[in-house]
Amino acid sequence: METAVVLLSGGLDSATCLAMARAEGFRCHTIAFDYGQRTRSELQAAERVSAALGAESHRVIELGMGGIGGSALTDHAIDVPENGGEGIPVTYVPARNTVFLSLALGLAEVVGADAIFIGVNAVDYSGYPDCRPEFIDAFQHLAGLATKAGVEGHPVRISTPLMALSKAEIIRRGTELGLDYSLTVSCYQADAEGRACGRCDSCRLRREGFEQALIKDPTIYQS
Amino acid sequence: METAVVLLSGGLDSATCLAMARAEGFRCHTIAFDYGQRTRSELQAAERVSAALGAESHRVIELGMGGIGGSALTDHAIDVPENGGEGIPVTYVPARNTVFLSLALGLAEVVGADAIFIGVNAVDYSGYPDCRPEFIDAFQHLAGLATKAGVEGHPVRISTPLMALSKAEIIRRGTELGLDYSLTVSCYQADAEGRACGRCDSCRLRREGFEQALIKDPTIYQS
């Protein structure tokens, strides 16, 4: 049986990614990051999802990205946008996926993982540069050079099973695998109980996904 | 005037790297990591060195790498070796330079830096895989794809001015630039006052460097 490290944010995509890794037969170690994000209920969602899907272990790694700043998700002086817009949005956290994959790579070495699963997606991808296939390919190459396992000829594989799926396809896949999406929180500004605002870009993409998948949206919205 | 992010550990190499960046005329933002390392006095040394060399800002980023484990430097159950040895040593922190460079990349985006300086060295490099030129080249490629600046055609440069220098050459260069090495702490198990053990691999490499450079070693050792 192969072992995987799975990055969990508490949102819909990474939960589906974990469900897919489990369905492929991987023993999974999940990792989430406490990086000063606006929405604390994300971290509780990640822990619930990890337990519900039978992961071997769950870790929350503290990461002082607030000391770096530059994003609406970690800097409370910047407002979260509610109307889409062009280009790379202010919710982009500088180098976030590079940082997250790097820490997952460290954990992969420690637990002897064969793969790292990350729920990035190039279809409904919000315009972040570090969600594209060429970014993942570059990280895969780096991983082979950066680590003891890589040097010894067993580089970890970076697995991105959601890369080419639409949000609706992701939701259909997860639903087929029995994933309960009411466990997840996608909203950039969810309240302490994990209830979604219904207005931010992340809420909009999620709601449209359920509509297009013709699956009832279990998201709990703020009244 | 160009701007740089400089990774500072508190040790001899990164201090020299900062001195070289300053001598090249860069405005420097320094960044250090509180990652559960054994030696807390490293972080105080980094702050001293940043101030002494006139950096624009200094940040200490918290990083819960202890939650990942797997190294003598972050896991107190593993002893620090005192006799060299073959292969990748237990002081190797899994994926450390990948993690550090990723966070420096995030800061580089926020401050609009043209370069990231990192004091890695392939000569006296302790056998860590993430100190080799091919690792740095792979990270440079990744940086061009991972960030807003990269996407917009201005990828940050990864500068490694110590890469081809011996420890003695590094010490000579820093001394020429007026760097006071008594500010720095290299020891893996320095005490609270920053006094070195004189026995670990890092102490051994440092002492041999001063001997070969024919420069008096200002290191304060534990009696």
UniProtKB/TrEMBL annotation, chains A, B:
It catalyses: 7-carboxy-7-carbaguanine + NH4(+) + 2 ATP = 7-cyano-7-carbaguanine + 2 AMP + 2 diphosphate + 2 H(+). SUPFAM superfamilies: Adenine nucleotide alpha hydrolases-like (SSF52402). The keyword Hydrolase does not apply. Zn(2+) binds at residues 187, 197, 200, 203. Transmembrane segments: none annotated. The keyword Ligase applies. Catalyzes the ATP-dependent conversion of 7-carboxy-7-deazaguanine (CDG) to 7-cyano-7-deazaguanine (preQ(0)). This is 7-cyano-7-deazaguanine synthase. It comes from Alloalcanivorax venustensis ISO4.
